[in-house]
Amino acid sequence: MDGAMQEDWVENARMIVDSARAIVPADGSLDRVRRLRAKGAGFERDVMAQAGALGLFLMRVGEEAGGLGLGLRETCELARVLGGGLVPEPILSTILAGRLLQGALPETVAAGEAVMLTAWQDAPRSLDWQGGLGGGRLSGRKVAIPGAEGADLFAVTTAAGVAVVPADAPGLTVTAEPTLDGGRLGTVAFDGVEAELLPCPDIGAAIGEAGLVHCAYLLGLSERALAITLDYLRVREQFGRPIGSFQALQHRATEMKIEVELARAAIFATARRLDTGTGGDAARRGIARCRLRASSSTMRVVREAIQMHGAMGITDEADIGLFVCKAMVETGFFGGAALQRRILSDLLDQGDAA
Amino acid sequence: MDGAMQEDWVENARMIVDSARAIVPADGSLDRVRRLRAKGAGFERDVMAQAGALGLFLMRVGEEAGGLGLGLRETCELARVLGGGLVPEPILSTILAGRLLQGALPETVAAGEAVMLTAWQDAPRSLDWQGGLGGGRLSGRKVAIPGAEGADLFAVTTAAGVAVVPADAPGLTVTAEPTLDGGRLGTVAFDGVEAELLPCPDIGAAIGEAGLVHCAYLLGLSERALAITLDYLRVREQFGRPIGSFQALQHRATEMKIEVELARAAIFATARRLDTGTGGDAARRGIARCRLRASSSTMRVVREAIQMHGAMGITDEADIGLFVCKAMVETGFFGGAALQRRILSDLLDQGDAA
Amino acid sequence: MSTDYNAMSDADFRAMVRAFVEAEYPADLPRYALHRLHWSEVKPWYLRLSARGWICPTWPRAYGGMELTAGKHLIYIDEMERHGCARVNDIGPVMLGPLLIKHGTEAQRARFLPRILSGEDIWAQGYSEPGAGSDLAAVRCEAVRDGDDWVITGQKTWTTLGMDANWIFILARTDKTVKKQAGISFLLVPMDAPGVTIRPILNLERDAEFCEVFFDAVRVPADHIVGAVNDGWTIAKALLGHERVFIGAPRLSASALARLRLQARAGGIWHDPAFRDRYVTLACEVEDLADLFETYVDALRDGRPIGADVAMLKICQSELYQRISDLGLEIAAETAGLGEPPDGDIRLHAAATWLSARPTTIFGGSTEVLRNMLAKAVLDLPS
Amino acid sequence: MSTDYNAMSDADFRAMVRAFVEAEYPADLPRYALHRLHWSEVKPWYLRLSARGWICPTWPRAYGGMELTAGKHLIYIDEMERHGCARVNDIGPVMLGPLLIKHGTEAQRARFLPRILSGEDIWAQGYSEPGAGSDLAAVRCEAVRDGDDWVITGQKTWTTLGMDANWIFILARTDKTVKKQAGISFLLVPMDAPGVTIRPILNLERDAEFCEVFFDAVRVPADHIVGAVNDGWTIAKALLGHERVFIGAPRLSASALARLRLQARAGGIWHDPAFRDRYVTLACEVEDLADLFETYVDALRDGRPIGADVAMLKICQSELYQRISDLGLEIAAETAGLGEPPDGDIRLHAAATWLSARPTTIFGGSTEVLRNMLAKAVLDLPS
Q: Which is catalytic among the residues D24, D41, D81, D243?
């Protein structure tokens, strides 16, 4: 990679992140996040509209198709900012829809006027996305869709391509369950729903990329959770000293920092490799590794964050709790850690010379 | 278990431990252990004779067969003392021979005049003991026998019973490799060795018991390694303070202590259960659990012991190094940790009502 | 005088407890609940235990208790756990009662014990303060003598189920001039006294499990002190007897493991070798802990003293409980963050287990404070 | 002036290094050795590198070095590692040379640098003392000015391959009246000076890898000081440049992982799902570390400053190396403690890997000292 390209992505990422600041309060306030909990679909349409207006949904749409044609690094930087702010809007899901549909992404969606979410996952603990077809129509179900009840449209992956269906299509049912972060996790069921299937040559790759981008959301979350915990360690006193002066906590805090830095390095190196041509098994391996690291480092950070906050860590009133709950909800997405290890195990003998 | 029985074993164990003090220096000196390294078979016949004179080899021979008829708890207490002194003599191997042969244990062996070791293991990473037969004679090999070159006789387990063979029997070859503790780990190969097979109804159980007793050797080793490390933490100064005053090391030291205490509790509770009638899968499960705990706690203790000793921990001159090397040699006996977990996994659905 | 349960054989006693529990545990109360239930929910069960004379298993029979030995008490606990009985508001039976029996006046015993037995009084504990979580002796809540009253001003926090209580016992500073442990007294305060205010604290599931209690010049009569003035720290420290052992009992870990097994079966990964490798390791740890626990129970049974090393049990149990719950959350994957139990089965609710495991390393002596103590008192490491 | 290697393309440079190594690495030297080799063994390889002008890759060309950029230096290291070249006695090329170039006098450079380049002088490092392992500034070895000489009395220890060296550089206390970092000087001492005694220290495999060096009124001329009197601590601390990054390179972990794979195959457990579950976790950690390492190499390449946070690399690499070696030891089971490689193949020798992993968390800044430093310098936690 030459210097010019390097600069390109850094500059692009900076612009994207700057624009995302419109969504994530500069002062770090989590009031909106707190207020939105257990309300409606779990997100605000206004904010989706704002994201649309900023062009975020066009990030992964190629320039030839009228998009921004940005890379995974830029998208990861965006996701990181969103994670740091615990933004509940399903922006990444719409970005994935754009990545899948390219020029076919409806203009209303791109502009943020209509909300389109991607419904790809056939079952929990699996990365299967090919289901959802039966007798030439959509049938079956797609799971694990945050905010599903707030969607106007779904981009549905199937073995035969991507279907765009309105949420009120006959035979389509959305159900959802409350999650600990105050959001709602949806399932979309199809009972012979008519839909046009748009061809997409690399659905699996696109979903893999979305899994990587989501790692960056977790990264942002854990970076901020670590920062909040370090602040607490500096000010909270016990036995007449700030608790951050106790060596046992200091050593554990350095471990949290290392976890976060490893996640950051792995995510952006993998994004760079994918941006610069890595695909196939190498990409799958890299993504699985990032998911493993991002989920384990996030859970480690929030576990330690609770412990270091003491009793405050298990209350609803301390902000750290918002990060804990969000981590519980999000770290298991894209199949969970056990699946990642299985994928990596299965890939062990691929490309293995000996 | 009533109070009287409880007292019995405690009293018996006390006597056995007292007698073992004749072998393990009261002042904790490791001079003999150090001196013996890389010399001959790795142990002293005199000490085996002493153990015989103390009756140790008759511990697990029933009273009706002229033995002491003692239980596993007493044997574990003995092993614990031997482990604490890093005693290199293969006393436990001869006790196992007594357990297998009962009244058929040669008097010269019982008296410590001849050294008999048990050759049971068919292969590393396995608990198979049934091999070693071919065409009515001993054939094949038995592995992982510490001190094998110093044996006069072997008790060899086979599917058809236990064979007693002299080390100089035609067709029997002993080979050995040096181990890091200064001992030698032997393999006995049989090329059509003639031998009488003595029936033994519960060879597998006896080997399981020996595995449990060996856990107590590891326990003694790790208890002493912990004590040495705590002593070092109390006196070694860095940055003008004893390093044992640093909270990070204190917390890790409590973890070592907990590991050792869990091992102790598990080993003696399992020994009690086996002494009071538990057998079959429950016994196998208990023994596998103890081996898992004893090996992991021992390795954890010695790993931390090295780190807390700093550079001294990796030198030959500090006593802690003797414990480290012994732990490396011994924790993997009886199949190793991975095998134990596999055994436990296989037993999961046994006796599982749901 | 009530029945001498200790005269029964263990087996008979167990059968009796089991039969009672199976017959009397209210059908509409949750079993194996992970959350503490409120008094409004658990009251019927408290009253049935009370009516049977079983609400205070460790109190002397002379005071209306069962006077169980450690061994019998363990069986009692076992059977309650086995049936999944909800924990009642037990601060009175477990903490205040034994304390009054040991340190109270005859008048205090006569006044308060019967009302605990009957369920008329529900007690809460007021030890922690906002500035002093791990450092309990850093009490700032103050009690000043004014005529025949103590006048209390200050704040307590992390009072479990405080909103259900009509009485609270607190540690209050009665002498600011001496070293911090020496100027603390133990006071009894009615929750409806003028100047007492309660603010619930929501936990991460947004249940009001704890509360803050504010004291604004609250007056209580002079005889509401237990023990001598300025001797409260000694009393509070000595409070826990058996509890120091039972707080490290393997039951939370064991039941989390059982739930993990059910969850793995329901999720179709029970036969996955990689999962099993992790599962058996945790299962062994639970059994190891149970064996270690048993050595302390044996000591209790034999009347041998329990040393500071018993804190190992609590460290071990709470961290193991958390690690088991971590694996449960991991295998739940996309369903890990659900707010409600899958299929309505609380045992399959990994998130609830995970959250319920968190406070165990914080309350009742944080793991860090216990490790500091072990390093000094047990390992004899220097300060 | 020698070749400007930095003008070559990376690919050409790599190909050149590889060709040289493959042609010139002595056939009778071990490859992928886990132990440090002695001078008697490794001398031919030193001399061939020296003859090629490649023994000092980072020195300026003006002084006889290759003057490689960080990127080129990485390629150089990569290719050495790839072939499994033994590490030479490199204290002169890596530590003393750069230090003299920066802080020495022209006379010192003229005298010592050529002899390092040629292999005539083999240097050893004398920092640690028996009382001061982690606390390097607690220097007690003393140098007193007497006429035109420094007279040195004291002891150094953990001097790697000290028995192979004819020179040693030491930190000595030259002012006892100031705070401990301020009274230290950096001195050069010939090993054959009267009063120098060496005692080898055996490691756990009973190899003499380190030694103690005793100084009994050893006299060196006044010009054997580097930098100003009492300024030795500053010089010693600034010594490590690139090295702070490279000490955290993933290569030790990566090669331990490769050996673990071979060992698992040889032991027949490569396809065991439980083993694989553990293996892939470690393999991912190695790749994560490699990615983190790369961010620092990028900074070096771009000439950006390296902060104190680089210590994370070393903590991470050394602990990971150890955890990989722990799994290797575990799967070796009954063969774990063998003193010699199974089938003579060092790569299958789990014990050797395990032992070689131990010092990495102790030397070069112990993990504990680095964590203390990170907590303060990077996380900004209070003292």
A: D243
List of chain B residues whose C-beta atoms are within 8 Å of the C-beta of residue C281: 292, 341
Q: What is the structure's pLDDT at C69?
A: 85
**Residue among D292, C89, C291 at smallest CA distance from A270:** D292
> What is the overall mean pLDDT for chain B?
94
Q: How far apart are CA B239 and CA D138, in angstroms?
A: 8
Per-residue pLDDT reduced to its tens digit, C50-71: 999 999 998 999 999 999 988 8
- CA A131/CA A124 separation, integer angstroms: 13
- Measured between beta carbons, the chain C residues lying within 8 angstroms of B262 are 285, 288-289, 291-292, 316
CB B322 within 8 A of CB B181: yes
Chain-chain contact of D351 with B328 (C-beta, under 8 angstroms): yes
- Total tally of structural domains belonging to chain B: 1
Active-site residue among C243, C319, C334, C340?
C243
Residues D210-265: tens digit of each pLDDT: 999 999 999 999 999 999 999 999 888 776 666 788 889 998 999 999 999 999 99
Is the pLDDT score of A4 beyond 60? no
Pairwise CA distance, residues B210 & B203, whole Å:
10
pLDDT tens, position by position, B13-48: 888 888 888 899 989 999 999 999 999 999 999 999
Q: Where are the alpha helices (DSSP H) in A130-238?
A: 203-235
Q: What is the CATH number of the domain that holds A250?
A: 1.20.140.10
> Which residues of B, range 45-104, sit inside 8 Å of A by Cβ?
none
Q: How far apart are CA B329 and CA A184, in angstroms?
A: 55
Contact predicate B149/B41, CB 8 Å? yes
What are the tens digits of pLDDT across the range B279-309? 999 999 999 999 999 999 999 999 999 999 9
Domain boundaries, position B347 = 203-353
Instruction: Enter the pTM of the model.
Output: 0.94
Q: How confident is the model over A12-25, as pLDDT tens digits?
A: 888 888 888 889 99
Residue B230 touches partner C, C-beta closer than 8 Å:
yes
**Mean pLDDT on B136-161:** 97
Does the residue A334 lie in any domain? Answer: yes
B256: closest chain C residue by CA: C379
Residue by residue, what is the 3-state secondary structure of B89-110? Answer: CCHHHHHHHHHHHHHHCCHHHH
Buried b (16+ CB within 10 A) or exposed e, B75-102: bbbbbbbbbbbbbbbbbbbbbbbbbbbb
CB contact under 8 A, D334 and B239: no
Long-range contacts of C176-181 (CB under 8 A, 24+ apart): C176/C142, C178/C230, C180/C137, C180/C138, C180/C139, C181/C137, C181/C233
Instruction: Assess contact for B337 and D338: CB atoms under 8 A.
Output: no
Q: How many residues are listed for chain C in this entry?
A: 383
Range from A271-280, C1-10, C82-91, D314-323 carrying the lowest mean pLDDT? C1-10
User: Tokens 């955290």 — which residue?
Assistant: D248
D106 is catalytic: no
Terminal CA-CA length for chain A? 30
Do residues D351 and D336 make contact, with C-beta atoms less than 8 angstroms apart? Answer: yes
**Cβ neighbours for B142, distance < 8 A, ≥ 6 positions apart:** B119, B120, B121, B122, B131, B132, B154, B156, B157, B187, B188, B190
DSSP strand pairing (B137-146 vs B237-238)? unpaired
Domains of chain D: 5-88 (no CATH), 123-230 (2.40.110.10), 248-377 (1.20.140.10)
A/D interface, count of CB pairs below 8 Å: 94
Chain D interface mutation, best of C271, C277, C327, C330, highest count of D Cβ atoms under 10 Å: C277
* Average of per-residue pLDDT across B191-202: 94
Q: What pLDDT does C241 receive?
A: 61
B2 pLDDT higher than 60:
no
Q: What angle do CA B128, B131, B137 make, to 5 degrees?
A: 160
